[in-house]
Amino acid sequence: MIATYFNALMIIVGSLLGLLLKNKLKASYQEVVFTSSGLVTLVIGISMAMQTGSYLILLFSVVLGGFIGYALRIEDGVLALGTWMERRLSRGRGNAESGRNFALGFLNASLLFCSGAMTVVGSIQAGTVGDYQLILVKSIMDGCMAIIFSAVYGPGVLASALFVLLYQGFFTLAGGAIAPVLGDAGINELAAVGGVLLMMIGFGLLDIRKSKTGNFLPAMIVAPLLALASPMFKSFVQGIGF
């Protein structure tokens, strides 16, 4: 868990630096931050999405996950939670807009820090063989991105450090049992769907298209399941003569 603690610490440090930067940025320069972070997020998302072994699995994962998320209204729940957290932290002085920004910062930063294959593979390596190198590299990258994201979204990015602790901690502690089940295919499909979600965030930062990214979170569960079922489906098709 040492590497996971370090990762969370780097996010906190980066977020604090970003908040200082945001307070000193002129309004004219904030557009530079939004455009730069949007473009970089798109590049990261595209590179992750290309890891998929099957574009059909990627497509069905996003569609099915989106159906589930919209039915459950996941993003509405996250935004409501963010508004509640922001009001508690500000002792009732917050408003709906600041609560929404807090929630979006928490949601988008959590996706950025936890959706890649580096998170799963690095955490499993740390928990099973004590190899911290991948997570340490990821920690530095996350700290740098936390500076940019907190300058865009504000203090909600700080809260993502807690989610990183829980998410990476889970894979670190349970990695020995999870790794054989997910396999390389499952991890790659999970990362690919995470890339698609990051692309949604990037398009939103660039004001190209706003999407309720939180509603697509179930796709990250659907993707590994479809990857596991894919060999069985292929065997079934071959068995009936197609």
UniProtKB/TrEMBL annotation:
Keyword vocabulary terms for this entry: Membrane, Transmembrane, Transmembrane helix
Keyword hit for Transmembrane helix: yes
Transmembrane region(s): 6-25, 32-50, 56-81, 102-126, 189-208, 215-233
Origin: domain of life: Bacteria
Keyword Transmembrane: yes
PANTHER family per record: INNER MEMBRANE PROTEIN, INNER MEMBRANE PROTEIN-RELATED
Protein name per UniProt: Transport protein
Species this protein is from: Sphaerochaeta globosa (strain ATCC BAA-1886 / DSM 22777 / Buddy)
Organism phylogeny: Bacteria, Pseudomonadati, Spirochaetota, Spirochaetia, Spirochaetales
